[in-house]
Amino acid sequence: MRSSDPPPGPAASRSLRNMKIAAVAAVALGLVVAQRLGLFEVFSEPARIKQALVELGPAGYFAFVAAYAALQPFGVPGTIFILAAPLIWPWPVAFALSMAGTMAASVVGFSFARFVARDWVSKLVPARFRAYEEALEKRAFFTVFLLRLIFWMPPMLHVFFGISRVRFQTHFWGSLAGYFLPLLATAYFGEKVFDAMRNAPPSVWIGMGVATITIIVVFWIVTRRSMRKVIPS
């Protein structure tokens, strides 16, 4: 990322160092708690997730969000959590927990990239994300919203936002807006879709596949046109 900011003074450097230490401590604490609760083992075997979280009772809410926040930024697919939630809890609870976990994971990934390992992780960002640097500088909120709506929460997108010059508040609220509709739809329709597709004939699967591909293509075309408006060619 380009930067024309002057070098930070001693007070700013100390503050940045303290924030890095706090971020590292928070991530380490989350990983330790997840390990002590046995969450690594539970979420490595999807068949055990529902039983384990239900047995925890109300503490299962915290375990779900904590595991999501600690594991997703470092490689565990967030879709495991998002698809599991509506199969475990009623959809309003599933939506609230999915949103809380997704936002927590996004903040952890963003903070880790910005305050802890900026120089190292900046080399890992794919070119497909770097193509949006100019758009992020011109329309930060809209670009964060659009990228979250399209890509959701891959760890490298957390990193991209973390090493960019986008403000934390813009990243937070843009991500929240981008996640809202996909997570709401997944929470509300997730269990219904699973139940409907469980005994569906092959023709239904084929139709769903064609419809999905069509929606993706149309959405991609609309998105490309939107991004061209942000980045004039």
TrEMBL record:
Membrane topology: Multi-pass membrane protein
Residue ranges constituting the VTT domain according to the UniProt record: 76-191
Transmembrane segments annotated in the record for this chain: 58-83, 95-117, 140-160, 172-190, 202-222
Location of this chain's protein in the cell: Cell membrane
InterPro entries, A to Z: TMEM64 (IPR015414), VTT_dom (IPR032816)
Protein name, as recorded: TVP38/TMEM64 family membrane protein
Highest taxon, organism lineage: Bacteria
Family statement: Belongs to the TVP38/TMEM64 family.
Organism listed in the record: Polyangium sorediatum
Pfam families: VTT_dom
Record keywords: Cell membrane, Membrane, Transmembrane, Transmembrane helix
Organism placement in taxonomy: Bacteria, Pseudomonadati, Myxococcota, Polyangia, Polyangiales
